[in-house]
Design brief:
Blueprint (H helix, E strand, L loop, with lengths): L6 H8 L6 H7 L5 H24 L1 H6 L14 H19 L8 H22 L2 H4 L1 H16 L5 H25 L5 H17 L1 H8 L5 H29 L11 H12 L5 H42 L22 H11 L8 H18 L11 E5 L2 H4 L4 E4 L10 E5 L6 H12 L1 H12 L3 H7 L5 H5 L3 H17 L6 H25 L5 H11 L4 H13 L3 H23 L5 H11 L7 H21 L1
Parallel strand pairs: 1-3
Antiparallel strand pairs: 2-3
Helix pairs in contact: 3-5, 3-6, 5-6, 6-13, 8-9, 8-10, 9-12, 10-12, 11-12, 14-23, 15-23, 16-19, 19-22, 19-23, 22-26, 23-24, 23-25, 23-26, 24-25, 27-28
């Protein structure tokens, strides 16, 4: 970006104290003025972008930590979309005026993050979600729960903001009925399901609003507002249901061109789908082999039990033969998901009695201390996060939800929400057995807490605002997957049961990622995808359908876990080779955490930059 130095800038420079000529050159290098201007231009564009989001998308602004947006919901209208598009395009033009080569190295990466976020937002608005995506309207439910999950302001203000959003839900229902024009029937089905869960759970929102309210008039008004909002949700449910039954509505799959755009802008993945599919196919085959190895001890145990039963029935008082623990030679026979289901049913046990919420906090603190002491992780301070009960709206579809601080939140705090079982004692035990048996808890702890998402958040508190607000989802998800493998490598995930559940977790991810690319590029139909999962690979029908719902609602999300993991492992391999005998695992992780969730193809560059920066500081320190 070409600029002339204004007299005001010169005056500002002259206001500084006058050091000796040698010190002046060290204090300020006039050759860096272009870099200074470009860095400021980047900050201006970032601030403008944030103000556009605050003005047009208050639901997203809340998650960015801007509490002034908390009392509003998005205006889902064509007019708002048009204004937002114009505003975002003007910000995009600002970023295009910036010369990357004149930015500092760190800000070159920040510029790329900012541009990819802008491109993703602009592209999504251009797809006309107002008319084509029922799920856009159900995002208002999440916006309501955002204010329940986190205390973003004082308690009284928090409830006032929440009440304002609750009162705005009838307008969202009206917008859905006025705007949606023959959207994909499958999206309508998913939206109908979300509206159903929101309706069933909405009393918990009203109960939250009533906390601490003693005035009878206010209590009555809040209850009326809650009932009005609940009726609006029912109207949305009915409307989505009618849309889901429409014939000849458009296909929900993206197609290759649009899919390439999503991969590049939302996930910073630049490989073409054909090349990506080959990589994912290879990854799936490797996951099959890993699962087969993890299943082997349980297959042998089953065989031994069957021999014992036969001998007992025949009453043969001879020594029991033990199957030879050797692998059969010949062609590899892939395992089925059914093999895992059978083994898991035999080995999984419900957690021991006690307070599960408190136990997870204690376990995470112990794990952080262990990994910091054994040289796995750099010290990130004391472990401080809360563990709470998951609201019913989310508990219908997931066992847990980790919520990091909202962007620039003034009092940042991380929260882990867990699904608490209900029903009779037997039902509760079965639910706990499924959700939080010992291997699952270890994977939850390592992937979501330490060294997973929580630890990454805590260690990255000094990241630039752009990296906090517009991080790469690919590296964020990849770190969670990497953290689970790291837990295995560092002897936290060790037992045969642990290894089985880890292998299943990666197998499930690998299958979902492969289906994702094939489905969204229209190589697969929905029926083909379901056949691949259920018939060819033994997934239970319900689990397969849930995977496809996620793939439809969040294209390429499943791929980001695989791609992000591979990016981190390749970066570590190159770093270790470069460092040789001086390789230090904690130092590598420190560099990755300092870099934050940058675009995958920038990670190695960022590691090098941070290394050079650290060495330069050390050299300067040694001079004095």
């Amino acid at each position: 970006m070409k600029r002339t130095l204004l007299p005001a800038l010169a005056a500002c420079l002259l206001c500084w104290a006058f050091p000796t000529p040698a010190a002046a050159q060290a204090f300020f290098d006039f050759e860096d003025i272009d870099t200074l201007l470009e860095d400021n231009a980047l900050n201006d564009a970032a601030n403008r972008y944030a103000s556009v989001l605050l003005s047009f998308f208050p639901e997203r602004a809340t998650r960015m930590g801007f509490s002034s947006a908390n009392s509003k919901l998005n205006a889902r209208s064509a007019a708002n979309t048009s204004l937002a598009l114009n505003a975002l395009r003007s910000v995009k033009e600002m970023t295009e005026q910036i010369t990357p080569s004149q930015l500092s190295k760190a800000n070159q990466t920040d510029l790329l993050l900012l541009q990819r976020a802008l491109d993703a937002d602009i592209w999504q608005l251009e797809q006309d979600r107002i008319q084509n995506d029922p799920l856009y309207y159900t995002e208002a439910f999440d916006a309501v729960y955002d204010l329940m999950l986190k205390q973003t302001t004082a308690s009284a203000q928090q409830r006032a903001d929440l009440l304002a959003r609750v009162r705005a839900l009838p307008e969202v229902a009206r917008q859905a009925q006025n705007n949606l024009l023959q959207p994909p029937a499958y999206f309508s089905q998913l939206a109908m399901e979300r509206a159903y869960y929101a309706y069933l759970a909405f009393d918990e929102v009203t109960d939250f609003l009533l906390q601490g309210v003693e005035d009878e008039v206010s209590i009555s008004q809040i209850k009326r507002d809650g009932q009005t909002a609940k009726r609006a949700i029912k109207q949305m449910f009915d409307w989505f249901k009618s849309l889901s039954q429409e014939q000849n509505t458009q296909d929900f799959r993206l197609g290759e061109e649009a899919y390439v755009q999503v991969l590049k802008d939302r996930y910073q993945i630049t490989e073409k789908p054909a090349k990506l599919e080959k990589q994912l196919q290879k990854n799936f085959l490797q996951a099959q082999k890993t699962l087969a190895d993890a299943l082997e001890p349980f297959v042998l145990e089953t065989a031994e039990e069957e021999v014992t039963v036969v001998d007992d029935l025949n009453a043969t008082p001879t020594v029991q033969p033990t199957p030879a623990k050797t692998k059969k030679k010949g062609k590899f026979v892939p395992p089925s998901a059914q093999d895992f289901y059978k083994a898991a049913q035999r080995v999984a046990a419900a957690p021991a009695g006690g307070n599960l919420l408190r136990a997870l906090s204690q376990d995470a603190a112990g794990l952080a201390q262990r990994f910091e002491q054994d040289g796995t992780l750099p010290a990130a301070g004391s472990v401080q996060f809360s563990v709470k009960q998951l609201p019913a709206f989310y508990a219908y579809t997931q066992a847990y939800l980790f919520v990091p601080p909202f962007g620039n939140q003034l009092a940042p705090v991380s929260d882990l929400f867990l699904r608490m079982p209900s029903g009779n004692k037997l039902a509760r035990q079965e639910q706990l057995k499924k959700d939080f048996n010992a291997p699952v808890r270890k994977l939850l702890l390592s992937g979501e807490l330490v060294p997973g998402r929580y630890y990454q958040t805590a260690a990255g508190k000094d990241l630039s605002s752009i990296r906090r607000l517009y991080p790469s989802r690919t590296l964020a998800n990849g770190w969670s997957a990497y953290a689970r493998r790291l837990a295995k490598e560092r002897d936290y995930v060790t037992t045969e049961e642990d290894l089985l559940f880890l292998a299943w977790d990666e197998y499930r991810r690998a299958a979902a990622a492969l289906v994702d690319v094939r489905l969204q590029t229209k190589e697969y139909s929905y029926a083909d995808a379901l056949n691949f999962l259920v018939t060819e690979n033994g997934f239970e029908q319900t689990e397969a359908e849930n995977l496809l719902k996620e793939i439809a609602a969040h294209p390429a999300e499943s791929i980001s876990y695989v791609y992000g993991l591979q990016t981190l492992e390749k970066a570590r391999e190159k770093y270790a080779k470069k460092e040789g005998k001086d390789f230090n695992l904690s130092a590598f992780h420190s560099l990755v955490l300092q870099a934050g969730n940058v675009p995958p193809n920038r990670l190695e560059q960022e590691i090098t930059r941070l290394q050079q920066q650290a060495r330069k500081k050390a050299e300067q320190k040694n001079l004095f």
